[in-house]
Amino acid sequence: MTHTHLSDRYQDGTSIVHRLDPRVKVIVTLLFIMSNVLLPDGAWTAFALSLGLVTLVCTLAGFGALFALKRSFVALPFVLVAITVLFTTPGRTVAGWQIGDSALIVTDAGATRFFSILARSWISVQMAIALTAVTNIPDLLHALRHLRVPALLVGVMGFMLRYLDVLTDEALRLMRARDARSVGSGGSLVWRAQVAGYMVGQLFLRTYERSERVYQAMLARGFDGRFLTTNPHQMREHDWWALAVAVVALALVHAAGYALRMS
């Protein structure tokens, strides 16, 4: 039977990045994303340096330079929600189209802002992908608890990840049963719609019942609201050094972004 688990995003390894304390990896990732958000529009050199940092992390982790890049394309369509800035930002006209009585005009400032948003989002997603690849889910949740994230929020995140696996498994079972009962017959569109409706109802009932069994099993094993891990979560010397180096690197990226922007 095929199972799909979100924790499969984790790539087991013994690299220097894997051995870092999960809190350091979470903090550096958040600082990296904040740094990208705060960079001015059109700071292309700084964006390139940020992309270089992601590539360096993936290389040090032993994944290869293109690991996060290949997996980040799935996030690009979501950036299209910002496409309106192309037409609404005041600036010099670079292109235009007449559609009926309306005109769509692309400005240079709008293009710079849109591609800056694209760069920020794309590079930040790559760092988030690298974080989940070098940190397993229990360590990630434990790190959030140590960083004073509210226990209720961490618990909700943990159950969401746990039950998404349950939902995926039950959906695969239903799809397999549907395929076994309709070999070679695609059926009409109405038939497919009816089957899909039945499957959604069955999926809700089956996942609800199974989630109850999973929760009762967790309670039987001593679950008290915390997701335990074997990681001791002790900051060592190399963790502090890694955090300091990351902060300095991000500060240099920011300085380069603003300095080249003003020159």
Q: In terms of structural class, how would the helical and strand content be classed?
A: mainly alpha
Helix content: 55-70%
Distance between the amino and carboxyl termini: 60 Å
Order of H and E elements = HHHHHEEHHHHH
Mean pLDDT: 83
Could you give a short account of the major beta sheet? Answer: 2 strands, antiparallel
- How many β-strands, per DSSP? 2
Number of helices: 10
Which range does the strand content fall in?
under 5%
Shape: flat
> Which radius of gyration do the C-alpha atoms yield?
24 Å
- Taking strands numbered 1, 2, ... along the chain, how are they ordered across the largest sheet? 1-2
Point out poorly predicted stretches: none
3D structure, described in words:
This protein is mainly alpha-helical and 263 residues long. The chain contains ten helices and two strands. The chain has helices spanning 16-19, 22-38, 44-60, 67-72, 85-88, 108-134, 137-146, 151-181, 189-220, 237-262, and strands spanning 93-99, 102-107. It has a two-stranded antiparallel ribbon with strand order 1-2. α3 (44-60) runs parallel beside α6 (108-134). It is flat, with a radius of gyration of 24 Å. The chain starts with 15 loop residues before the first helix and ends with a helix.
